[in-house]
Every structure is written in structure tokens, then in C-alpha cells.
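User: Can you predict the 3D structure for this chain?
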Amino acid sequence: MDIRHATVTAPQISEHIGEVAIVAEGDAVTGIYYPGHWTRPDRSAFGPEVGAASDPVIREAVVQLHDYLDGTRTTLDFAMRAKGSEFEERVWGILRGIPYGETLT
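Assistant: Here is the predicted structure, written as C-alpha cells:
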């Protein structure tokens, strides 16, 4: 498939969590990795680097992440396709159920 990534250093994202690698495959984001991410795959699995502004899938993710971190958006609805174990899928489902601005233990 068409795997590619962009490294985003835009201030609206990096001021909150640092430089971010956004990986896309086809028409969906498949990974967002920040510095020190403990399950970060080898960069060779990210595909070639593209400009974030020139890739519509990655560009939309960047726009929504910016708005989310600024507090002007409370949900993310860009196309995402996560690949994980059954356990990871269950955890991600639980995380999606946490309302914006709240924490749970």
C-alpha cells in the first residue's frame, strides 16, 4: 500500500508534545508518534517522507490536531486505521470513550 509519513514541527503541535511523525497508508492515518514514544516502530516502516501540507490525509490530521490542542475542537474525525492486537483494540475503544478534558483511572 501507499505508506508515507510527515514530520510535523509546526509550533501549534510541537509546543505541546514535541516533533511528531504522522504515518499514513492509503486514505487513512495509521500512526502518530512523538519523541520518546515507547512503541515507536523503526522509521524504515514509515515509508518515504512527504510534506505535510502536500498530502491531504496528513494535512487534515495536522489541522485537526492543532485545533484539538488549541481547545477549538473536542473530537478528532480524520480517517484513522489503527492496527493492533485484540487487547490494544479494546484499550483504544476505552480511550475513545473518555470525554474531552476528563481523566479516568
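The radius of gyration is 14 Å. The chain has three helices and three strands.
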